[in-house]
Design brief:
- The chain is α/β, with parallel strands linked by helices.
- Helix content is 42%, strand content 18%.
- It has a single domain, classed as Rossmann fold, CATH 3.40.50.360.
- It contains 6 helices and 6 strands.
- Strands 1, 2, 3, 4, 5 and 6 form a 6-stranded mixed beta sheet that branches.
- Helix 1 packs across helix 6.
- It is globular, with a radius of gyration of 15 Å.
Length: 189
């Protein structure tokens, strides 16, 4: 069965970003695909050290739990990333993860090529479109297919848990996006 991995970059295991990805997961499952939300909460994801060992190893040389996530992504047909926005940018450890995932893919078996997915940014206010665009760069440079929605994949919500779910327009946008990811995966099959 086709599967989509949804990576939550929030340090809060059940925070707004995780909850938004949960809504996306439900929509993907409605389309008949399998979906799994994987969280970076509690992990200490380091930045790429440019050792280039991933080309021969087909995994990252750093041992901090990211290789297990890479294995899940490698076996999936879709990949969606959600990040809270801190100080106008996606969380640093999420970008560390995305850069390393991209490096392993580009240096080895190009497992991200032709996967369907894209980013979602969750923020109280500033930096949300910049964060969305910064994450989007990783998808495009890895030859991924990013379907659209009826607006950018951004959701407004502050630090209060559940606040993002009250952004009706944002939730409608990411729900449509998640459905489009699933529909496109089915068409490509």
């Amino acid at each position: 069965m086709e599967k989509v991995i949804l990576l939550s970059g929030s340090p809060r295991p059940d925070g707004n970003t995780y909850q938004v990805l949960g809504v996306c997961k439900q929509e993907i499952e409605k389309e008949g695909l399998e979906a799994e939300v994987v969280s970076l909460a509690g992990k200490d994801i380091k930045g790429c050290i440019a050792c280039y060992k991933c080309g021969e190893l087909k995994k990252c040389s750093l041992n901090d739990g990211l290789n297990e996530i890479i294995d899940k992504i490698r076996g999936a047909q879709g990949f969606i990333v959600g990040s809270p926005v801190y100080f106008g940018t996606p969380r640093g450890d999420l970008m560390n993860a995305l850069q390393r995932i991209g490096m392993v893919s580009r240096s080895s078996d190009k497992f991200l090529s032709w996967k369907v997915g894209g980013p979602i940014a969750v923020a109280r206010r500033g930096g949300i479109t910049n964060s969305f665009q910064e994450m989007l760069m990783v998808f495009f440079i890895n030859e991924m297919i990013v379907p659209g929605s009826n607006y950018w994949n951004i959701v407004f919500g502050g630090k209060t848990k559940g606040e993002a779910l009250k952004d009706e327009e944002g939730i409608a946008t990411v729900t449509k996006f998640a459905g489009n990811v699933a529909k496109l995966i089915k068409k490509l099959k």
